[in-house]
Amino acid sequence: MSNHLSTIAKIPMVDLVSQYQRLRSEIDPAIQEVLDTAHYIKGPIVSAFEQELASYMNCKHVIACANGTDALQIALMALGLKPGDEVIVPAFTYVATAEVIALLGLTPVMVDVDPNDFCVRAEHIESAITDKTKAIVPVHLFGQGSEMEAILALAKEKGIYIVEDNAQAIGAEFYLSDGSVKKLGTIGDIGTTSFFPSKNLGCFGDGGALFTNDDDLAEKIRMIANHGQSKTYYHDVVGCNSRLDAVQAAVLRVKLRHLDDFAARRQAVADYYDQAFESVEWLDIPYRNADSSHVFHQYTLKIKNGKRDTLRIQLKEEAIAHNVYYPVPLYKQKAFAGYWDAEKKLRTTEALCDMVLSLPIHTEMRAEVMERVVEGVKKFRI
């Protein structure tokens, strides 16, 4: 296997080097402006990014912060939740979604997801609501939206907050039944996102942001993210220190101008994969919701017949990167053992953990690379 690998180029999950090279003539001067002005923390470049992102999202307020996990934590802090309050989250998601809930002394309540789009549904949420439930965190997984209209109606009926985890679907749109269109992340009380480098809108380090159309919540969020200050040295609440630095904001301002093109490039790769794989009986291509666009942060197949891990061995031999998001349900993680009845299982979540496989997808994929990925998968025989 080692001799075979040495003769072929490895295909990565994401190619940030090529993306930088394509945008270098815009990114380098933007970074240089930060170096020339020495406004490294906050300042006009961070403010400009917040305003430009708010305009793109058609949202009143964008508050930048240090990372996507901080964004989730700050959102829950801004809602004034108290220890013991319950927050409903999908069991099939990255740990950060539930981690911040436990960190604040709240109780994460994990529910099953839809087998098609991997997102939580209103019916899953409703069955888990108690008199302690104060918030729901729907995760727009892999690049498309949860059924936000139904979730929004349920939350209004029950008097529950919604915090959208939009780390994987920035730029995606949700189509409401009244004909209006909203960006995912702007539908609930607060939306959050991450600018981790591999995200659809990624910086060159860590970064995150919160979205809200509520003026009072925006004021609280800004205070909490800045040590609870209403003005310098006057601290109205206990907060934290979570800031997006200006170098990252400069990079993100450039990339934001290309975000719709990034989505189109990812969608073109997904379309190519769909056409190549739709007739393969032992896998399911990604489901696409009718009420949400899909910006394909990940292209995730479901591999049938229990052969996912065998396929992974072959892809490794072919030097084709791949990943499993996520191999373990949140409630089976040791960190959350105290929040879950060990005898209880969520059937769909556990099935997905054994079936899902994500293939390389990014903005710089060339035709010959996509062909190699397809060939590497299709040569597998069950």
Characterization of the model:
Helix content is 40%, strand content 15%. Helix 2 crosses helix 9 (246-256) and helix 3 runs parallel beside helix 9. The chain has helices spanning 2-6, 16-37, 43-57, 68-78, 96-103, 122-128, 148-158, 215-225, 246-256, 259-277, 308-317, 347-355, 367-378; strands at residues 61-65, 86-90, 107-111, 133-136, 161-165, 173-175, 181-183, 190-194, 208-212, 229-231, 234-235, 283-284, 299-303, 356-359. It has two domains: 20-256, 3-Layer(aba) Sandwich (Aspartate Aminotransferase, domain 2); 259-378, Aspartate Aminotransferase, domain 1 (Alpha-Beta Complex). It is of the alpha/beta class and 382 residues long. Strand 4, helix 7 and strand 5 (161-165) form a beta-alpha-beta unit. Strands 1-9-8-5-4-2-3 form a seven-stranded mixed beta sheet, with helices on both faces. Strands 12-13-14 form a three-stranded antiparallel beta sheet. Strands 6-7 form a two-stranded antiparallel sheet.
